[in-house]
Amino acid sequence: MSDKPEKLITDDGLRLDGRRADEIRPMKIEIGVLSRADGSCYLEWGRNKILVGVFGPREAHPRRSQRADSAVIRYRYNMASFSVEDRARPGPSRRSIEISKVSREAFEPVIMAEMFPKTAIDIFVEVLQADAGTRTAAINASSIALADAGIPMKGLITSCAFGKVDGQIVLDLNKEEDNYGEADFPVAMTQDGEITLVQMDGHLTPEEIKKGLELVKKGCKEILEIQQTVLRKKFETPVEETSEEASEAEKESESVPAPEFAPEAAVEEIFEEAEEFGAEVSEEPSEADVLSSEVVPDSEEEIEEEIEEEFETEEEFETEEEEFEEEALEEEAEFEAESEEDLEEDLGEELEEEEFEEEALEDEAEFEASFESTPELKEFEEIEARLEKEAASREAEEEIELGSETEELAEEEPSPEEETEVEETTASEETIEPETEVEPETETVEIPTEGVEAEEEPEEEKSEGPWKVVKDPSEAGTRGEKDE
Ligand code: UDP
User: Fold this and answer.
1) 130 close to ligand 1 (CB < 6 Angstrom)
2) How big is the CA angle at 109 (ends 104 and 113), to the nearest 5 degrees?
3) Where a domain ends, among 237, 257, 284?
């Protein structure tokens, strides 16, 4: 334990930790630090460090401790052995039992214990680090923990002590002031200022107590604000607007034009853009910057002048804006219509091209097939070859039989070449009956549709040679029809 300092309060009225007489130590509160507790709080006040856990309301054990008309409030103050300079003896002590009792009684007026008969509300206080005023610090922390546990209370309890140091009444004693001071006076009170705990250690006059109580009220008020702030931060939910308030807000929003359509807003937007542009421009302008600076106005005044020149009145500005929007819409509609027409045309052309190509391919295939797979063509070739062979053999026979017949007879007859020309023409037409009797070697040929019909023709029709005499053109078969 350190020796007693010469002075606890300096000549300029400050205490050893720098506080004035009516100042409390800095306080820090954290809620809900213990997951297994219904409510919990960790509080630092100066160099005090307090941990509180609240359990309940829960069934009270042992049963004999139960109360039929209300809950039992149990408060256990425990000082950790490592919490003080000299090791504290573990377990209950006269002091801890006393502190537990007075602290419990400090809460009894506000906790609505009658709501929970036969139950227990347990408040466990662990002093982790002590620096005087641990009971008051524990009461402040317990108040938060009870609220965190949802225990119904009429209000928060706040606690603070005053004392007498170097003959002066001071608020919230620290360890040195508690040890070497003349008095220590802890107090707990409700939000309404009703005292629920008061103790005194030392000697004080009534005037000093009166003065001290005034300081405690002030201190408790400050502590209450801290407690409320912490609780609001965790539990307070935004208040929903009533339907009337909501309708009023809607009306207001309707009456005010939307910023994007307000000319003032448009002007402000231009200012903002100009400012942003100016911010981007470096201090030493490049050639491009110099050129652009001739186009882009530098200051707000210049922009304003330009806008005023361009649009003398706001109405003109609005009408210009509307016209521009209309033009843009018309252009957009035209562009869409044109693009649709172009698309349709392109599709039509593509379809036509495809059809044409398909037809061309079909024609080509038919044309090729007509040469490759027509049986008439083969038969024609076979007949032609056979007739040529027969004609050659007859020529040879005639040459042998006639020998050297007169040249006159030979002149009267058409030349074989002329006959061939005529006959070939008729053969191709297939329907022309030969008018003159011609030599057998100049035959016209009927292209048969089924087999070699020429050989199967009746005798009468065959009388004039191997030609087929067709009386009705329709009898020529499909070939003649096609030629027509
Ligand atoms: N103290 C201690 N050992 C103990 C009890 C108390 O060192 O066994 C110190 C501790 O710092 C405590 C201070 O004495 O805060 C004052 O104790 P007091 O009994 O006055 O209660 P408090 O002021 O802490 O409410």
Assistant:
1) yes
2) 80
3) 237
Rounded to two decimals, what is the model's pTM?
0.55
With respect to residue 350, please indicate whether it lies within any of the assigned structural domains: no
- Residue located nearest, by CA, to atom 18 of ligand 1: 132
Domain that includes residue 468, residue range: 378-472
**CA-based end-to-end distance of the chain:** 138
Tens-of-pLDDT digits for all 484 residues of the chain?
A: 678 888 999 999 999 999 999 999 999 999 999 999 999 999 999 999 999 999 999 999 999 999 999 999 999 999 999 999 999 999 999 999 999 999 999 999 999 999 999 999 999 999 999 999 999 999 999 999 999 999 999 999 999 999 999 999 999 999 999 999 999 999 999 999 999 999 999 999 999 999 999 999 999 999 999 999 999 999 988 777 777 777 777 777 665 544 444 445 555 555 566 555 544 444 444 444 433 334 444 556 666 665 565 555 555 556 666 777 777 787 777 777 666 666 666 566 666 667 777 777 776 666 566 555 556 566 767 777 888 888 888 877 776 666 555 454 444 444 444 444 444 444 444 444 444 444 444 444 444 444 444 444 444 444 444 444 444 444 444 443 434 3
* Final residue before a domain boundary, out of 217, 237, 257: 237
The residue whose CA is least distant from atom 8 of ligand 1 is: 88
Please say whether the beta carbons of 224 and 157 come within 8 A. no
Q: Is there a contact between 280 and 288 (Cβ–Cβ < 8 Å)?
A: no
- Whether residue 126 lies inside any domain: the answer is yes
Q: Say if ligand 1 is within 6 A of residue 177 CB.
A: no
CA distance 163 to 19: 14
CATH of the domain at 66: 3.30.230.70
Residue 12: closest CA among 168, 132, 211: 168
CA of 132 to the centre of ligand 1 (A): 5
Domain count, the chain: 2
51 in a structural domain: yes
Number of CB atoms found within 10 A of residue 37's CB = 20
| 4 is a domain residue | no
